[in-house]
Amino acid sequence: MSEWSYRTLDQMGIVSRGKSKHRPRNDVRLFGGKYPFIQTGDIGAAGLYVTEYSQTYNEEGLAQSKLWERDTLCITIAANIADTALLAFPACFPDSIMGFIPFKDIANVKYVKYCFDILQKDCQQISQGTAQDNLSWKKLSTIKFPCPPIEVQNKIATILSRYDSLIENYQKQIKLLEEAAQRLYKEWFVDLRFPGHEITKIVDGVPEGWEKMPVDSIYSIKYGKNLSTKLITPTGKYPVYGANGVIGYYDVANCNEQVVLITSRGNGSGDVLMTYHKEAFVTNNSFIVLPFEDYDYCQLSFTYQFLRNANFRAVRTGAAQPQLTNQSIHTVDVVLPTKELITEYCQKTSQANIMIVNMREQIRLLTEARDRLLPKLMSGEIAV
Fold it and tell me: What is the pLDDT of residues 334-363, one digit of tens each?
């Protein structure tokens, strides 16, 4: 520790904001090309690296922006403050994101990313404003980062990134398994190329034996429990599910089985997600979905895909704050395949679902182990 110093971010590398000079920023003429355009939400959803994005710039978009090199550290300074991830490829990003490129032999970019993981709360605290939270460079420059010799930084980054690499590998495997289940569902129940479709009659626009009915006649769809955000912490016994998955942890569970959720509020209302924990606490911005006893053959693997194909977004209410209500859910009709087909689909996807659950548990354990090790390494409590 005697060799450790403390430095501001600009003493460790080059820091500058992303560029998006054109107004309006969402001008369609800028998009649809080959250059990835990374936004704050993409960084918030990333692990060590940003690997996915939803928009791209064309040549006109690039001309009013900047292409950052691979391994640039992206730091969000608006919306989700001080989320960080490295670019897995050259990309553009707007001025709601800062880019950091380390000085050679002064800083390791992965080490700096892990510093942000430790200091994120400090960044959020100094970013609080009256109208909207914002992490300006003036504010960020007040934070000093622990800066040991580059050799120590390299070792710390190597140790911690091994956990992230394992997590990323599990995530890739999960994605492949989920995509396979989606393809099979689409083939059977959307494109109607299910086993025996050649000899199945079409009656009133649907295969014989399939039934059209309100979705809430098949499933019990109820709000999760109202939970104050003050009670949600980074650690705890049970995960708390929000609109985009796990948002924190709590010490009491009120839902002790794996379920499917439908998000009820915000821009993501109508989205469907699945819990992968045996015991999970669910906040009230999601509906908990369980099949009624008469439809207990609609197991989790089928229910998840089935509800993803129900058009909940079409019945949302509220212009400023979209939401899904019990009343609007009741208006959603679905076509339920035969019990035999559903059972066969669940059997074919059951092993994949078991593997997904097990891998998500491994991700949870790896994340916990990394997060316990992180502050000890960054403080010098554990020597490397």
Answer: 999 999 999 999 999 999 999 998 998 899
Hey, what are 79's tokens?
């919306």
Element (H, E) at 33: strand 31-37
CA-based torsion, 146, 150, 152, 158: positive or negative: positive
- Region 153-177: mean pLDDT is 96
Which pTM does this prediction carry? 0.84
Grouping H, G, I as helix, E, B as strand and the rest as coil, residue 86 is strand
* C-alpha to C-alpha distance for 138 and 127, rounded to whole angstroms: 10
CA distances to 112, 224, 300, 305 from 275, in Å: 32, 13, 10, 13
| C-beta of residue 102 within 8 angstroms of C-beta of residue 108 | yes
Confidence tier at 131 by pLDDT (50, 70, 90): low
- Between the alpha carbon of residue 102 and those of residues 107, 289, 310, 342, the distances in Å are 5, 48, 47, 54
Give 230-263 as a DSSP string: GG-BSS-SEEEEETTEEEEEES--SB-S--EEEE
Arithmetic mean of pLDDT, 102-125:
93
Q: Sign (positive/negative) of CA torsion 361, 267, 39, 29?
A: positive
Assign 71 a pLDDT band (cuts: 50, 70, 90): very high
Q: What is the number of residues in the chain?
A: 384
- Smallest CA-to-CA distance from 298 within 334, 353, 343 is with 343
List, in order, residues 6 or more apart from 257 with CB less than 8 Å away.
278, 279
The pLDDT tens digits for 275-330 are: 877 667 777 678 889 999 999 999 999 999 999 999 899 999 887 788 898 899 99
Instruction: Estimate to the nearest angstrom the gap between the alpha carbon of 384 and the chain centroid.
Output: 32
User: E strand or H helix at 146, and its extent?
Assistant: strand 145-147
Give first-to-last CA distance, the chain, whole Å. 11
